[in-house]
Ubiquitin-related modifier 1 homolog (Galendromus occidentalis), 100 residues
Amino acid sequence: MCDISLEFAGGAELLFESRKKQSVSLPPQDRPWTIDLLVKWLAKNLLKGNPEMFIHADGSGVRPGILVLINEIDWELLGGKDYRIQNNDSILFVSTLHGG
């Protein structure tokens, strides 16, 4: 099992019942947990708002405009969607898209 801390900000929390912070225990599986697998798991298990506001329509990952930080580091510097999640990681999803 992998225990992680999730945080949603910039409006992304509205897609997750306005819960800004959540602790999650990811279920065991045969392959390592990656950000890509986490996003799909979030969409299936925790996402309550419009999925198109969080993930690509084809399910290939977070949509543009969602900044992902892992332990306060931009996920792109850590391998992007292929980053292997570690126990006690802190993962922040920030929406940078705003209407005007």
Notes: The radius of gyration is 13 Å.
